[in-house]
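Here is an idea for our session: we take a single protein and study its fold together. Once you have written the record down, we can walk along the chain together.
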Amino acid sequence: MADSSFCTACGEAIDPQRDLYCPKCGVPVKGGPADVQARAVYKEITKNTVTWAGVFLLIASIPSIIIGLDCVLNTSVVATKILDVYDPVISLQVLKDNIVTFGTVMLAVGAFGVIGAILCFKHRFWVVALIASIVLLFCGIFSFIGLFLALMAMWFLFSARDGFDEYASKI
């Protein structure tokens, strides 16, 4: 065993070119075939997890976009329905202004979700994708499904950070 080294876990002499695992403790030999294969599998799993996070972000942003478009495009109808149900405490114009503001915010939240999804699909800019999922999570309270999907996306992003290009080199 001219090219021998020692196990990082127990100190047993090993041959990285021949041994897949330490014969004494069973730890994969660093740089050996088992280690290389395990790293390749881990990379593939994290890439897939990031892609699923993107799918969740995209689906979670749909309710925000629909609500935002409805508020911005149908302001008068929404305001009239609100005033029909509730006693008018504020004027119609102030209510319309508030509805447009709310709709614009919802469209922005939906845009955050779409941007986060695109970044996940490209496996780039983990921090920005994470911030997009957090914004979508906190603003997703208008839809239980949106809230759940944004939470799942955030969880996937935390657990699969290595699936983004800027962290993949550290695997």
